[in-house]
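Archive entry. Fields below.
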Amino acid sequence: MIVNEKVAVDHGLKKDEYAKICEMLKRTPNITELGIFSAMWNEHCSYKSSRLHLKNLPTKGKKVIQGPGENAGVIDIEDNDAIVFKIESHNHPSFIEPYQGAATGVGGIMRDVFTMGARPIANLNSIHFGSPQHKKTKNLLRGVVHGIGGYGNCMGVPTIAGQTSFDSSYNGNILVNAMTLGLVKKDKIFYSKAAGLNKPVIYVGSKTGRDGIHGASMASASFDEKIEEKKPTVQVGDPFTEKLLLEACLELMAGNSIIAIQDMGAAGLTSSSIEMASKGNLGIEINLNKVPCREAKMSPYEIMLSESQERMLIVLENGKEEHAKKIFDKWNLDFAVIGKTTKSKKIELYFDEEKVADIPVNTLVENSPMYDRKWKKAKLPKKNKIKKEDIKHLKIIDVLKKILGNPNVCSKEWIWQQYDHTVMGDTIQKPGGDAGVVRVHGTDKAVAASVDSSAVYCWAHPLTGGKQVVCESFRNLIAVGAKPVAITNCLNFGSPENNENMGEFVECVQGISEASEYLKFPVVSGNVSFYNQTKNEGIKPTPAIGGVGLIKDYKNMITMEFKELDNLVLVIGKTEGHIDQSLFARNILDEKNGPPPEVNLFNEKNNGETLLKLIDNNLIKSAHDVSLGGIITAVAKMCIKGKKGINIKKPKYLINEIEYLFAEDQGRYIIEINKKNFKKVADMLNKNAVHFDELGTIIENELYINEKTKVTIDELSASNKSWLVDYMSK
Amino acid sequence: MKSSVITFPGSNCDRDMDVALKKFGFKNKMVWHADAELPKSDLVVLPGGFSYGDYLRCGSMASKSKIMQSVINFANSGGMVMGICNGFQILVETGLVPGVLLRNKYLEFICKNVFVKINDKQNKYFKNVNNEVLEFHIAHNEGNYFCTLDQLKKIEDNNQIAINYCDENGKIEDQFNPNGSIKNIAGIFNKEKNVLGMMPHPERMIDKSLSGEDGSLFFKSLINNLK
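PREDICTED_STRUCTURE:
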């Protein structure tokens, strides 16, 4: 095939990008080379629109062993243990083929983690669907949940937490973000940097097929009417092979044979070989006839661009080939020496004894395009004033029931019961709490993880929204008694070529940076997913934050269900009555305008750290962060989970009852304490200048508000649990 | 007491079972599926997971793997063999216990706590468990036990049902059946009751920080009965 500008444009390259390629090569690339450039230079692999802004994220900290730039981030959890973790999107494939798209998303992120030598110990996910009324939503939800479960369950890794939301902005572009945590010894971490000349380059895992060719390019473009035709670009997952690959890799890693290892994810053999060469400042020579292929007569172009799953590329020490081969034979996996490292600093490919590609590595990586896209700053919207006549007819209990049954608040048990969340025998906090918690096997330590996003806040004001998501992650970890350590982010946005969408990206990242800097909660890994849009309509900006925290003694973990009658319930943090962009405003008052709740980083940090002190002093019986639906929703959930009631007395604030109960002010928690400890707790809160309200006392079976309004917990529980089950069974 | 846990390609509860057996005093060995010989054992466990990816049919390929001939011989000579979840699926494929395991009634993987009622205590597995009802944990996609009416009659005549799904008070009703199993069957024995297959995972219930502790009652009884 003759390569020209039109062929390049068909590969998703811009005309000036093609001109730059010809200039750097000083010739026209052949079709294989063009394919390689298109794979490396697309948005998904090159981060060409985002790199400039991601540089500003805080990525360093005392506990950070490895920040962004590797397969995943690594943090120190003491005693020579480290946690490897990352979140990644698989949005576009999941919309086209929900089961396989979601499954391979989970497979891909687990591979990123075990590539670094870590055994995966927990999976999480953040999934977002269109309006429940949209005709595709139900099937997409079912497919995605089956896909996530299908892969994770078979791998034997517990899925311990997640987040599901519905919003019409995802009607044509669902989001599927998968996160994995792995455990590794600090001195046994593996990296992707090749080193040494004439070292054997090894291919292991599944055979290469024609699936997923141009997957990364597909993920770097908007959808149109013809998306169904893109089904062949979705990869097909085989979790069984991945389980074997995991065990085989960990077995090989126990010795000293591996110099560098990289999984073949997006853009397959192309990106894995080029990344290893680039990091090691070396060249790589590959004989494509040696690559194990599933189908006959695959061309060099197809072999290089296939995104077949469950494959790894390894640079071995000389002389270790036989030892390594034995291990992969034992696990029935393909093993082939396909090339070697060279000093050429080029990627050189041979096929049928002919040289089919010859590209300097730096042209693909360092010299890849980087854009300073135009972006538009968002204004902070004006506050709305709630009119008395809008709320005077509202009955608090009816509103509460409606909110508990809202698709974005209701119980997601139907989803997480389909995920094996107890395999590996260390899950001590299951899905449905503020964060999932797993023990570090064989120790007293535990790791907490949560994944959060607040698209509505980010849409209303990206800078505040970006900050808020980081704070929410911080809170969720603290609520289970974990000290927050670091985060990973998955930045889901519309088109970077649209200056409003680009502005949302830039300002959300700025918000994330500010909050993570202030809270000393650095970003150690992440992923950007642009072009989440159909035709010209982008999704609401949805940065998802995966937070990880450490609990030194797992017996001190906190859960959210109310524990004991007569205990006191307090609200930590001040309630100002911010209703704009709350679930109450959007769903009960049908008011979609206004600013999101303000984020005060000082209060956020101070309130959180003080709560951790209370937990360390064994003063807290249960805790839960206040988020969607405000104080009353948080309290109701604690009642439902603990099968207990509460007698609430609204503190004598100037704001009215509705604002007090449904406002979504930030930096707040609900805590349960023993009455006899009240003075100790109050002293500690006062000493640290933390505002708190006495909210009420735990009683049996019913929720009372100011003596006059009441409802049984069973009724609330039914409102909370029925929506999703009913929706999926209709 | 010596135990052996078989690891098949795709097993993923083998480590959890190893941890549990050791916790209650077994000297456990991990045995690779391609080995021909079983080490000397008082108990052999086929663990949960997705042996051979559950491709073809759950448990079917594992039932033909090399070690299984030794396991079958061991069982036929009266040795204690226990299959949990995927291990139960492997046992039905070998024919050591009757019946088959179909896809769950609602076609979904299900992971949750359930209650089971012990149907028979005249065996080495449940003999010293004081409770009648245990809180166990299930995690499976194909746990819907099915057999022919003739088989069912024989199973009942021989008192081969080990445990049934029930509520916390031991009431065995359809509404407490998580997967559509015939007669709420959660586990069965072979005729001689040295072979037990069950869907619930007692190894996930051995610590009060986990889903519960009733698995401990089971393992304590088991090791005492074997002494």
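CURATOR_NOTE: Chain B has a mean pLDDT of 97.
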